[in-house]
Amino acid sequence: MSLAVVGPGSLTGRALRARPEAPGWRFVRWQDAVADDAWLDGVEAVVVCAYHPALRAGAPYDAALDVELAIARRVAARRAVRYLMLSTRAVYGPAGDDPVLREDRPPRPDRPYGASKLATERALDALLGERLSVLRLSNVFGDEAIPGRRTFFGVALATLRERGAIALDIDPSVERDFVPVEAAADAIARIADTPRGGTFNVGAGVATPVGAIAQALVEGHGTGRVEVLERRLHDAFALDVGAAVNAFGLVPVPREAVLARCVAIGLAARTAG
């Protein structure tokens, strides 16, 4: 499969660039992808890892800011090209009493980012139909010791480095689906190799307590502690990845592998510091 990846500087884009197949793929900045369509020559599938910073930060949805939609309009004119959209579990909204999120659950996003991604999903579906694969990702994580990064891992690594602690504002027992970015990249590559239309959850397929995640980072770092500021039972969820497993042969990520990756990230942060 001749593949183009838009957004090579993102966390997922960097993981895709590290794969052994990457020399045969085309990597394109989103600014160049929206400027013209020459980069689509000879391409069979497109993975878009980019999203406008304003929409990612929570600005109200505006089609004029929708990078994915602008790229999809160029793809629409190339009828042999398929499109893989990296969406988010946030489109589902709060899991509620049943923490397992399945693709047939009616989406009810309660945050601007999830609402924007849902709007993009619907706009792309109207434009591309069966040429669109929507991949709803869980909490993708990697080595995120990047100044100013506001993800769970970015903040946790920053505070661990700066004051020797990871502060939790939820109960440590709350379980969420965290998937290492390398596993997410493997899933994306598998899907891109034999894409099919539809919506598919992509995650670990198992939830891990946030307290265990934090403790694994501390373990790898060698020093530090986990502070619990509040014991809110908030936003527990797991993704049902059965549809992607059946369609593409994906393999769920065991909790042990998730925690082992956290230990390795903590160690890398200590070494870098």
Largest sheet: 6 strands, parallel
Number of helices: 10
- What would the principal axes of the Cα set say about the shape? globular
| Quaternary structure classification | single chain
What is the tally of beta strands? 14
* Measured distance between first and last alpha carbons: 40 Å
The spatial strand order of the largest sheet comes to 2-1-3-4-6-11
Based on helices, strands and strand pairing, what is the structural class?
Answer: alpha/beta
Short description:
With 273 residues, this protein is an alpha/beta fold. It has helices at 11-17, 30-35, 53-56, 67-76, 112-128, 152-163, 181-193, 210-221, 242-248, 255-272; strands spanning 3-6, 26-28, 45-48, 82-88, 100-101, 132-137, 139-141, 165-168, 175-176, 178-180, 198-202, 208-209, 225-228, 238-239. Strand 1, helix 1 and strand 2 form a beta-alpha-beta unit.
Describe this structure in words.
The termini are far apart. It is built from ten helices and 14 strands. Strand 1, helix 1 and strand 2 form a beta-alpha-beta unit. The strands form five sheets. It has a six-stranded parallel sheet, with helices on both faces. Strands 5-14 form a two-stranded parallel ribbon. The mean pLDDT is 95. It has 273 residues and is an alpha/beta fold.
